[in-house]
Amino acid sequence: MNFDTLGPHVTNSYVFRGSRKVPLLAPRGIFTANNHLFVSDTGRNRVFIWKSMPTSEFQEPDVVLGQLNIEDTGRNSGGDVTANTLLYPSGIWSDGKILVVADAWNHRVLIWHSLPTENGQPADVVIGQPDFNSNQPNAIGIGNNPSAKTLNWPYGVFSDGKSLWIADTGNRRILYYNTIPKSNYAEASKVIGKEDFTTRDYENHQPIWPYSVKVNDKKQMVVADTQFYRNLLWNAWDDAFSKPADIIIGQANFDACGQNQFGLFPSSKSLNWTYDACFYKDGLLVNDTGNSRILWFNEIPKQQNAVATAVIGKRDFNTGSENKETMNGTSSSLYWPFSITTDGNKLIIADTGNHRVVITELKF
């Protein structure tokens, strides 16, 4: 990789590809806690745990979930869905003790109430399905209405250590649980983006295709609303149950839905298939996946369609995925990064299109 393409706002960058035996394939989820690194190796239907932050290009994981061995990569471990298997895992959250994984294509979320220590360790709790052997959309099948217990393509998860938020992407909503469930098929406490738990229709002021949700210690909440190329920001997360977002990032208003705001090239305030965001210090990092870049706002935006402070992954704001250094040889720069997380001043990027993780240090 040509690390100069990341721009002047980061330093000490390096590439991590996972296990040398069977490297990462399209990793979509990434999270850190207590110096542990968690990666959803989405294309190979497994989740990796490293007990310390990797410092070289390859490092064997301490634990692999979804498969019994590091060499195995089959969907649901090559068989039927169980408490041990995964199918297209995506979002991850952990505090170093509890682990939550969005098992997207099994239409469920898995919870380990103590950090797994063995390969293929079964989950303790399943959300979205009545048991560990079921994996239909909304528990019954395609075309059925959701409920307070069901999920359809859940891609994002987040917790503050007490409560749990799930980006129930296919149902175009976010489910909120007062406490992290300890029993299977638990009912959500409240829903964000819908009037009730069974509604499927949506309005443009609601999350249209929520892919990730994050909450900071100031109780602000940001949702990557992918299909409308925007991020939605609430100044108080509990307001989201009853009112539209306070701030829109990437669009001028709720009626706007243009890819790069219908521009030929990106700008300092446009987005293209945004899949994640991350609070950092007093500001916000927004993962602009379709433009293969990350936008940095040094303060939480206070007005619609805010201009970003800086860009990471491109030399300037007007260069996107189909421009020089990406179109002809994507490995020289970021290519469709799906998720981001921070650990101190480290920025860890799931560089999905390049089948790798990029680890760098922020200068902000």
| Count of DSSP H/I helices | 0
Average pLDDT taken over every residue: 95
Task: Classify the fold: give the CATH topology.
Answer: Neuraminidase
Provide the structure class: mainly beta
Largest sheet: 4 strands, antiparallel
Structurally, how many domains make up the residues? 1
Coarse shape:
globular
Q: Mind telling me the CATH class?
A: Mainly Beta
Which percent bin holds the helix content? under 10%
Biggest sheet, spatial arrangement of strands: 1-24-23-22
The SSE string, one letter per element, is EEEEEEEEEEEEEEEEEEEEEEEE
Strand content: 25-35%
Indicate the multimeric state.
Answer: single chain
Uncertain runs: none
The number of distinct β-strands equals 24
- Write the CATH architecture name: 6 Propeller
First CA to last CA: what distance? Answer: 23 Å
Radius of gyration: 19 Å
What can you tell me about this protein's structure?
Strands 1-24-23-22 form a 4-stranded antiparallel sheet, with no helix packed on it. A 4-stranded antiparallel sheet has the order 2-3-4-5, with no helix packed on it. The chain starts with 9 loop residues before the first strand and ends with a strand. It is globular and about 50 Å long. With 364 residues, the protein is mostly beta strands. It has a single domain, classed as Neuraminidase. It has strands at 10-16, 29-33, 36-41, 46-50, 63-65, 89-94, 99-103, 108-112, 125-127, 154-159, 164-168, 173-177, 190-192, 210-215, 221-225, 230-234, 247-249, 276-280, 283-288, 293-297, 310-312, 339-343, 346-351, 356-362. A hairpin with a 4-residue loop joins strand 6 (89-94) and strand 7. Helix content is 0%, strand content 33%.
